[in-house]
Backbone:
DNA sequence: CTCCAGATTGACTGGTCAGTCAATGTGAGG
DNA sequence: CCTCACATTGACTGACCAGTCAATCTGGAG
């Protein structure tokens, strides 16, 4: 068998290494951990890491690409539904928040080590990262065309604000400055959509274009 | 003379090193550059860096604290003015965007290497970073108390969304996915406030708490 | 001019760690 | 039982680089 097909009962060591890497990268950071930490965490020999991955960096690239593609697919799928823009955006916020809830370490690694790492992994994956912005912008653009969203705010700009707000929430959880209960996660989904779509103001004086 | 008081005509080598560090950290990233790169960029000997700074990390800490304190002071000063919340938030957005415009390298270093670096500098400076969130939340809180902002969205939550949206814009500029003209910077200030305060929707159906 | 404190220099060291590799294990097919 | 391909092991190496330090410079005070 090759690395991809794990027999039932046999442990997929490649997967074991990836999972261990998530845990170690999240706990110590990509730059502050050693490959041997990952191997130890996975319970495999040092050299096996290099049997499955060309380099330490390739491990992180793999983790990012795997997860990011799932998110891109989710955004595409949400956009394809026949729903008002606000509900589509709720779907996107929901997916991202649930991703964090389901695997906070992985999302932490992706945000901390890739999404904002302009000089290393971020630069390598910028096109993939951008696809997410474009997907969200597409949702906003459709709403603008329909007239349900203002035309004064460009869609790509709105997408950046929306994505930025969500990523900041995750950052708040990562840094432990926001509470992390199931209830909070659910509340956050609604609040972020309300904040961005409905705005913060209660009374609506004329809005400028 | 000590390091602090530079005589006119004499170059402040400490400052020279800090400025060189901004340039080098921005170009190559903190982890991917050597102390000798900083020394070379500053045009001083390797050892002089260690005359003024205890370690490579202390250089980054110094850069961050210097600049962040200026921002905290600015937020405090803006909050003290007698203005509607929306204009206060415009003031904050304006200050941050202008900070980037004035010294993009420094802001890039702060965002990329500190603000999101949960396992290294971010953890060290989390209290300072938090002060910014709290300052913004204070502005929102006042507006909520006055009734000009909705009460359904908690102030600390709104602050995170607002700050996140701005930081995402800077990230867009850093990654070169958003245009970087003076006109765009000015536009961005207004748009981010409009997006967060006024929301994206054109018609206002009932808003849920 | 002499002295001294602080500024400046850059060669060197000690530790760290990513990546290599030769040896060994393992299990499926013949 | 044998063979072979692939999995697994972990000691080792070569490069890299943060931080040290002894030597040298500089400029003001006496």
Residues:
């Amino acid at each position: 068998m090759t690395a991809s097909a794990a027999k039932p009962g046999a442990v997929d060591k490649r997967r074991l290494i990836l999972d261990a890497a998530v845990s170690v990268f999240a706990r110590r950071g990509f730059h502050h951990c050693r490959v041997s930490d990952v191997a130890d965490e996975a319970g495999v020999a040092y050299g096996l890491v290099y049997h499955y991955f060309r380099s330490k960096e390739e491990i992180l690239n793999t983790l990012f690409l795997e997860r990011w593609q799932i998110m891109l697919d989710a955004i595409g799928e949400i956009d394809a539904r026949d729903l008002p823009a606000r509900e589509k955006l709720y779907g996107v916020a929901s997916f991202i928040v649930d991703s964090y809830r389901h695997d906070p370490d992985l999302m932490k690694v992706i945000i901390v080590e890739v999404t904002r790492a302009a000089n290393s992994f971020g630069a390598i994956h910028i096109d993939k990262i951008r696809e997410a912005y474009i997907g969200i912008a597409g949702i906003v653009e459709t709403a603008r065309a329909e007239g349900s969203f203002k035309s004064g705010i460009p869609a790509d700009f709105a997408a950046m604000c929306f994505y930025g707000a969500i990523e900041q929430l995750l950052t708040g959880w990562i840094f432990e400055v926001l509470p992390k209960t199931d209830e909070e996660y659910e509340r956050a989904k609604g609040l972020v959509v309300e904040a961005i779509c409905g705005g913060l103001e209660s009374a609506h004086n004329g809005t400028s274009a």
The longest helix of chain B spans residues 56-80. Chain B has a mean pLDDT of 93.
